[in-house]
Amino acid sequence: MTKPVKIGLVQMSMMADPAENAARAERAIEQAVAQGARVVCLPELFLTRYFCQVESAEVFDLAEPIPGPTTERFCRAAQRVGAALIVPIFERRASGVYHNSAVVIDRQGRIAGHYRKMHIPDDPAYYEKYYFAPGDLGFLAVSVEGLRVGVLICWDQWFPEAARLTAAAGADILFYPTAIGWHPDERHEHGDEQRDAWITVQRGHAVANGVFVAAVNRVGFEAPPQGPQRGLQFWGSSFAAGPLGAVIAEAPTDAEAVVVVEIDPGRIEAVRRGWPFWRDRRIDAYGPITNRWGDGPAGR
Fold it and tell me: Do residues 147 and 5 touch, judged by C-beta distance below 8 A?
């Protein structure tokens, strides 16, 4: 029988020094655990400022292997605080091959899961294709602290297929470590609409799959050290939603926060009985979804 579990969402502003960010992340984890959190998630690429605003070969020096120094540090931290951690990493897989990744560390300090971001954006100030190869480990759901935890990363949160396949792997909750914000030229006209779309699509994944969702964003303004970009204002707003899409906890748009909220995986059974989307899926008819568009072989 499942029991309620408290989860922690760490919304951070990032400093220039990775060591300082790691220390601040550990303190935030300790704060979340002190409030009862059993699973704590950090934001995407939390060790550094968001370097993808520009393309610079020197940035690759920040990448590290898995396992490596950061995983070893946070494995020790997980063991010390007695909680599971979701720790994003700029992963160096081999010379010239890098990924935007995250590991799930159990309370014994062991790496229980490893996810590589599947969908890689390439937009102004989000030049991630320059840095990251697409993930190739599939969609992750791993058991820690009485939960089946799924991990997806930032741009993945816009894709219903990623949420569906992670939920189909058995996830009770989809964690989305994130780095998303406003372009200065767009915030006045489109800012509210963009942030609302971001929240809405993830609430939709919760409803469509009958799972919990937790989005964990950074916050604050970050200007690139060089190049024409004017910087990004990360909008915070880290939140958790239940399997009917209701937001059950939310952080502010403009401040760091440690959000701890209790979720009950037993709620998933009740929701799916009443809203049986999984029962009524027409898996025999979904072949064309593997096409880029509807004019592929399976769509004819």
Answer: yes
Q: pLDDT (tens digit, 9 = 90+) per residue, 17-32?
A: 999 999 999 999 999 9
Of 66, 67, 100, 106, nearest to 86 by C-alpha is 106
Report how far apart, in Å, the C-alpha atoms of 159 and of each of 7, 8, 116, 120, 251 are: 24, 24, 15, 12, 23
Give the DSSP H/E element, type plus range, for residue 140: strand 140-144
Catalytic residue flag (residue 154): yes
Tokens 């609409």 belong to 193
Closest by CA to 5, choosing from 153, 167, 164, 172, is 172
Question: Quick check: is 58 catalytic?
Answer: no
Whether residue 291 contacts residue 298, with contact meaning beta carbons closer than 8 Å, is answered with yes
Select which of 6, 26, 41, 44 is catalytic.
44
Structure tokens at 189: 């006209």
For the chain, the first-to-last Cα distance in angstroms comes to: 47
Do 200 and 178 form a contact (C-beta atoms < 8 A)?
A: no
What's this model's pTM, rounded to 2 decimal places? 0.96
Q: No. of H helices and E strands in the chain?
A: 6, 17
Catalytic one of 52, 91, 154, 222: 154
* Per-residue pLDDT tens over the stretch 195-222: 999 999 999 999 999 999 999 999 999 9
Nearest to 234 by CA among 55, 74, 52, 103: 52
At 280, the amino acid letter reads D
Across the beta sheet with 239-241, what order do the strands follow?
Answer: 140-144, 147-151, 173-177, 212-216, 239-241, 247-250
Per-residue pLDDT, 47 = 98
- The catalytic position among 6, 91, 117, 250 is 117
- φ and ψ of 187, to 5 deg: -60, -45
Q: Is 44 a catalytic residue?
A: yes
The residues, ordered by sequence, that sit 6+ positions from 16 with a Cβ below 8 Å of its Cβ are 49
